[in-house]
Amino acid sequence: MSPGLPLSLQVFAILSALIEERTGLHYDVPERELLAERVSGRATEHGFESLLDYYYFLRYDAAADAEFALLAEALVVNETYFFRESAALQVVVGEVVPRLLARGLKPRIWCAACSTGEEPLTLAMLLDGAGLLDQVTLVASDISARVLAHAQAGVYRRRSLRSLPPGVVGRWLEGDENGMRVAPRLIRSIAWHRINLIDEKQPPEFGSFDVIICRNVLIYFRDQTIEQVIDRLWHRLKPDGYLVVGASESLLRFKVAFTCEEQGGAFFYRKQPK
């Protein structure tokens, strides 16, 4: 692995602090070379010959907001595919949504940090298969406008298609093993938003949700940031709403107003009053 542009300890300190401030992504000193390698591509693309110059661009330039979204994408491994860790989604569709519908409610579900969209589109497929898609409000968000555009284009390559169950191709996906397109009606069933999870100024019209799925992003944050993000998600949940995190992202070590429940082989965090 090439180390990219040199990154001194002094520049690492200010650059990593700025990245964490704007995106929540945390890097310790032992990860200095990894950060240098991942940041260098963005820096050289802008014509910078040093990471200090790139830091000043991020700190002071008017175009820094758009750049941070692209930088965050370069720093995070967008490892996602259709039907990944689908047990929790199956429970949401098979148990949580029907319970809410039986109470005369229209469930609202938010897939936060959705990357290129495989997760919310999987959920849309499951809901459609259960005849429930038009009875649920689906929202998906990510910090990166580029990955959201990818999701809305709906074209996926082999890496995203490696875990498809029988019956998906031909019903919701068309193409071959080298590339497939999602049925446009599934894409239209989802409201796509650009949201930075650490930004306190999330749009007030975003509303509240019965289920929030926020998986495999908290691992990039330090504990203090995780607590802040979880608190914001708590406020976005309706009473007794469910939060779903990744399998390696237990919240049990945090003092959060959730109770952990196991359903159908998946773990859910149910909102409790503070």
Provide the fold topology:
Blueprint: H1 9-23, H2 32-45, H3 51-60, H4 64-75, H5 87-102, E1 108-111, H6 118-129, E2 137-142, H7 145-153, E3 155-156, E4 173-176, E5 179-182, H8 184-188, E6 190-194, E7 209-213, H9 223-236, E8 237-244, E9 258-263, E10 266-271
Helix pairs in contact: 1-3, 2-4, 3-4
Report on the architecture of this protein.
With 274 residues, the chain is α/β, with parallel strands linked by helices. It has two domains: 9-75, no CATH class; 87-271, Rossmann fold (3-Layer(aba) Sandwich), CATH 3.40.50.150. It contains nine helices and ten strands. It has helices at residues 9-23, 32-45, 51-60, 64-75, 87-102, 118-129, 145-153, 184-188, 223-236, and strands at 108-111, 137-142, 155-156, 173-176, 179-182, 190-194, 209-213, 237-244, 258-263, 266-271. Strands 6-2-1-7-8-10-9 form a seven-stranded mixed β-sheet. Helix 9 (223-236) links the parallel strand 7 and strand 8. Helix 1 runs parallel beside helix 3 (51-60), helix 2 (32-45) packs across helix 4 (64-75) and helix 3 (51-60) crosses helix 4 (64-75). The N and C termini lie far apart (47 Å). The mean pLDDT is 92.
Would you summarize the structure shown here?
The model has no long low-confidence stretch (mean pLDDT 92).
Let me know the CATH homologous superfamily of the largest domain: Vaccinia Virus protein VP39
- CATH topology annotation of the largest domain: Rossmann fold
> If you average the pLDDT, what whole number results?
92
Mass-distribution shape? globular
Gyration radius, in Å: 20 Å
- Shape-level CATH architecture of the largest domain: 3-Layer(aba) Sandwich
Strand content: 15-25%
Query: What is the count of β-strands?
Result: 10
Record the strand order, biggest sheet. 6-2-1-7-8-10-9
The CATH class of the largest domain? Alpha Beta
Largest sheet: 7 strands, mixed
How would you name the oligomeric state of the polypeptide chains in this document? single chain
Give me the number of helical elements.
Answer: 9
* Helix amount: 25-40%
Distance between the termini: 47 Å
